[in-house]
Amino acid sequence: MDSEASRIVAPGNWQPITGCRHPITASWRLLVLAAFLLIPMRLQAADPAPNLACAKCHPAETAGFLSTPMGRSSGPAADAPSGKYGHALSKSEFTIDVTGQGSGGKMVQHIERDGFSGEYPIAFAVGSGTHAFAYVVDIGGHLFESPLGYFPGRGWGMSPGYEEQKSPDFDRPVTEDCLFCHTGRARPVAGTYNTFADPPLESAAITCDRCHGPVEAHLRNPVPGSIINPANLPPRARDSVCEQCHLMGEERVPNPGRKVNDFVAGENLEDVYSVYVKADSQDPSRPGAFKVVSQAQQLALSMCARQSGGKLWCGTCHDPHVLPKDPKAYFRERCLTCHHLASLKTHPKPAQDCVGCHMPRRPVTDGAHTVFTDHRITRHPPPASPSAVESTATSETNLTLAAWHEPAGSLADRNLGLADVRVGDRHENFPLVYKGFQLLMQCWSGFPNDPALLNGLGLAVLASNHGNEAAASFEQAIELEPGSAVDQLHAGLAWKAAHDDPKAIAYFEKALELDPLLAQPYRELAAIYAAENDTAKLRETFERFHKAFPQSIRAQEDMHETGP
Q1: How far, in Å, CA of 461 to CA of 72, rounded?
Q2: What span, in angstroms and rounded, lies between the C-alpha atoms of 280 and 400?
Q3: Within 140-294, where are the H helices?
Q4: Cα separation of 363 and 383, whole Å?
Q5: Whole-structure pTM value
């Protein structure tokens, strides 16, 4: 990128890149769904009981944990009933056939639209069933999300992010980050976007090491101190154990050379990755939208937490080894450890359900058809729905991000810059993209061989529709990680924006050579050939896409439109 890079992305030069969202930002809703549900992968091939080693010495704790939603974070697809569902917006008709039960059962989902149909065996159930089940299909070792979910008490419906789609299909990638909070450690194929080894998980569901750290040393020498007890950690590391899965924020940015799922209990979260939230959401007087995975953020806003001097944390009220038989009494007892029985004299009667009044279940803004417990512990019940108060929160056009906890040194600018660019791109908010671009330019010299930073710079410049300069940044990233199909896709998008079709085609083809089941390059190639009226190449591209996704409604429609 040249010395005039800051001019290139001046606010007046920005143009939205409609239809060119790169896969990372396009799949953000899947991260929300993954955090809101619970994703298992090729469940039958994974170890069904990885916690048994702990159960030998801790049978009560292990049994209690396995009864909780975390302990049931993966489940067989056949646990939901057969049924039918019609999606009015897209005129898609779904049929769900379930045979057998439990791990020996099978589920097949059918989709039909405009005379075309597809059939997908469901490989993995998504969810403990507390709030919902969603489903994942396995196509050639690549994991994709079904558009259909099951909501106990309500029945079948569209999964979050699919409700407003006019042509839903089984083509939303499931990535390594999506799996981090909801299953045992994943086994992705290096350099790929959503390809996994067989089996893709070391274990099917969340295991003891998620909260207690590596267990090998403790198994060799099972004495106190040879394993982590989160309650005994310093407050920041203690809270990080819970925040790894109960704080999504607006963006999570790994440090150079790290991944989100590198985090292990005992570390501070920002030693591995930074979480960024809306800056005004940290102000207790300005409540933001009530979201699915923001329990840690909500709790920090509460008067209880703010006046506790850091003593109140998730473990004060929650025991992950216990599923209370009487939640009202269980949590009331915990409230009274601080507030004492004398406080009940000022309460209206009856006063048996502290949580019901001060932590009511409320609809969320980023998850369909369900409600979650509000952890802000308000003195008076908040509005029943996310309406008047929350609609006055900062608009997406005036968005400022802040680190939940600042990373060390120059990582503060680097990580915030990447968060600004990614969130700004997702919301088509150019002032935020430009702010992130400036931060990345300022710290670039400190991270000259950082593919994530180079991709962030490229994305920011691409948002201003300066394809040549964006391509230069993406190509530098490719030199550092030549096996990344997503980097090749980014370079192709940049050259397409620069109106250099031959170079764009070359990069899209390289992306497909590295990953034939990356859907977007097919669409980009088809758009180029359609604009050039090259019907032979257009047909060939549709044929390749159909071969990669033979059940896809979109692929069948494309083939039909181009004739025999």
Answers
A1: 44
A2: 8
A3: 176-179, 209-212, 216-220, 235-246
A4: 11
A5: 0.87
